[in-house]
Amino acid sequence: MLRIENLHAGYGPSRVLFGMDLCVEAGSVVSLIGRNGMGKTTTVMTIMGLIRPTQGRVYIGGADMTGRAPHRIAQAGMGLVPEGRRVFPSLSVRENLLATASAKRSHKWTLDKVYDLFPRLRERERQSARTLSGGEQQMLALGRALMTNPAMLILDEASEGLAPVIRTAIWDCLVRLKAEGETILVIDKNLKEMARVVDRHLVIEKGRLVWTGSPAQLAAAPEISHRYLGV
Ligand SMILES: Nc1ncnc2c1ncn2[C@@H]1O[C@H](COP(=O)(O)OP(=O)(O)OP(=O)(O)O)[C@@H](O)[C@H]1O
Predict the structure, then answer these.
(1) What is the residue with the minimal CA distance to atom 19 of ligand 1?
(2) pLDDT digits (tens, 9 = 90+) for 190-211
(3) pLDDT score for 25
(4) What is the whole-number distance in angstroms between the Cα of residue 221 and the centre of ligand 1?
């Protein structure tokens, strides 16, 4: 579904990615993990067309999408739940969800289906997004990404800064999405929760892929967690 090869990118003179590789097969859930500042968000921004790589390629569904504009990447099926949520604060919950709705690729995700996944959003349908709690805003950001009927979802730190009970609700939701066959790339720090849903971890260190394996393989290799994750 998504493949990046030998990606080099950064911010002006400051280089962050040094030959990053990554592959997410259709129907799988893959994590991108690594210490702070190693280039996870930069990888996502380059995939989404928000940063232009200086070298390397991004393939989506087999098509070379390197350097394409963000709206073209979204049309190609990438649904991003960005770090920091960024819902439209003055719009209602319902308006936020309808703002991104697209039935171009599939009709799978509708308002009703998102409300079934997150009943709290149905209850707060007419409330403006700015009045939602952090956890509810995160649910809204995820629901909004689903309303684009993406071929693949990317979640950047979706459970960051949320109360434990809300965090669990977000992970439960990812388990459900996986069971429905969604393809997901998830960036997070919570290895324990991720082990419930992730097929494969990808570990990034200084802008390149250094290790890949299942949650069980990672649990059996404490030196990897210690060296690359600082845990
Ligand atoms: N807009 C920017 N301009 C310049 N440098 C940036 C910018 N955004 C990020 N960086 C730098 O790029 C490097 C990689 O940052 P990135 O956000 O990709 O890391 P990350 O792995 O996602 O980390 P975190 O877990 O802290 O979010 C860091 O050194 C960061 O300071």
Answers:
(1) 37
(2) 999 999 999 999 999 999 999 9
(3) 97
(4) 27
| Residue whose C-alpha is closest to residue 41's, from 92, 83, 88 | 83
Separation of CA 41 and ligand 1 centre (Å): 7
16 contacts 207 by C-beta, under 8 angstroms: yes
Nearest ligand 1 atom to alpha carbon 43: 18
**4's tokens:** 């990046």
Alpha-helical segments (H) within 100-221:
111-117, 119-123, 134-147, 164-179, 191-194, 215-219
- What ipTM is given for this predicted complex? 0.93
Non-local (6+) Cβ contacts of 194 within 8 A are 31, 33, 186, 188, 201, 215
pLDDT tens, position by position, 58-108? 999 999 999 999 999 999 999 999 888 789 999 999 999 999 887 677 778
Q: Are 1 and 20 in contact (CB under 8 A)?
A: no
Superfamily of domain 1-77+197-230: P-loop containing nucleotide triphosphate hydrolases (3.40.50.300)
Nearest Cα residue to atom 15 of ligand 1: 37
